[in-house]
Amino acid sequence: MPIHDPCALLNRLLQEPNESAWLEFKVNNKDPREIGEYVSALANSAMLAGRDRAFLVFGVEDHTKKRVGTELRLQQLKQGNEDFTNWLSRMIEPRVLIEVLDFSCDGLAYSVIAIEPSYERPVKFSGTEFVRIGENKKKLAEFPEHERALWIATGRRRFETAVATSNASTEDVFALLDPDPMFDLTGEPRPKSQEEVIRKMADRRFVLDNLEGRFDITNLGAIMLARDVTAFPSIAGKAVRIVKYVGRDKSRSDFEQEGKKGYAVGFTGMMKFLMERLPKDERYIEGVRRMVPHFPETAIREVIANALIHQDFMATGVGPVVEIYDNRIEISNPGNSLINTDRMLDERRSRNEKLAATMRSFGLCEERGGGLDKTLIEIEAEHLPAPDFISSENSMRVVLFAPKSFSQMSKAEKMRACFFHCVLRWLTHDYMSNATLRERFSLPAEEYQAVSTIIAESIKLGRIAPADPDQGRRNARYVPYWAV
């Protein structure tokens, strides 16, 4: 985040009540090694404080905050025969973004070093980590509790918190972001003033105060509220693309539509557009003939939301894709699954926690961990084939299938339905049985043997297991293979 208005930044920093973990004032200190140690200490302390930047300012008395100016010119400083800035970058590990600036305000000279923490690991200077303890700079190794906390803090930094656009004015923020979903989707009253709306955005970390009278828009703010995602290079390809094919393969497409709005701005409209174009069957519902989509809306919504939340934003040039065929719908996202596909319903892990929390708070998906469960429950209620979860090296794909009768299902489809039915029962602290699986397939009691064959084959292949190894065949109960 480059400094655009150093005098505005200085004025803002001087409004702080005193020095802090991320802010140090000096007058004249020309010792490069001492400065390097402060850079390490401020970077590490800023991580602990959850700050995006730390500042070392020269030309201000530390206790009085009196503006006195400085004789130091950092951009002219040398360490040996090497420029100070180059030397400092070489001595700091891992690499962090450091901006060194000399400037003048009201006739006085100042210098500032702005440091963006790495969030990869604690920052070292010349092989040693430092930290701010109170007003003092100390070696991190002398404070093991701070060291442990710092290693935890290094894992907090995510794509969502990085800056998509810096130094935006209030007008720029509203031109780029649509705040309406913050209130329309949550029921929260909309403030009357722009300043209060901005504050609400800042509370959600959609924007950050850059301390220069302007704002930085985060990737989280952009991906949720963008009026046009192409205005943000970091998320330009991350809107949902919908493709409809003629038939069951990719040989001929019917249409292709790529969204441009942020997820909160465009999700409802995208779902409406999609549902209107899905293959449909004619059914009589309560005596009225209706055209009903092959796929339950809740199931599609949760799978798409899951794809948005768990995508790998660092995979450039690709985003979530929805592909519609006559007999199925495929939803894919960049980034392989962080969870074994057999454990999709019971294990919880997210690649983008802040995005997931925001999507849930906006009501765009189920509560934590409940989305795919609800998808399977809806699919079972409609007696549809079980979905297929396919994780490859660089992508994750979920396939939802159009209606099929038991006799039309392949052996693999029947066994997949058996496995996920068993998982759903286990999640409710219950067991699968021949009777529950017959109900799942919408089969009468006389089809007992056909279902027994599916159960026996699933046991043989290690997909499910008897709940009690000593149980007889009558009233036998079963659990997923990983539950024994």
TrEMBL record:
InterPro entries of this UniProt entry?
RecG_C_sf, Schlafen_AlbA_2_dom, Schlafen_AlbA_2_dom_sf
| Domain Schlafen AlbA-2 residues, every copy | 19-140
The protein, known as:
Putative transcriptional regulator
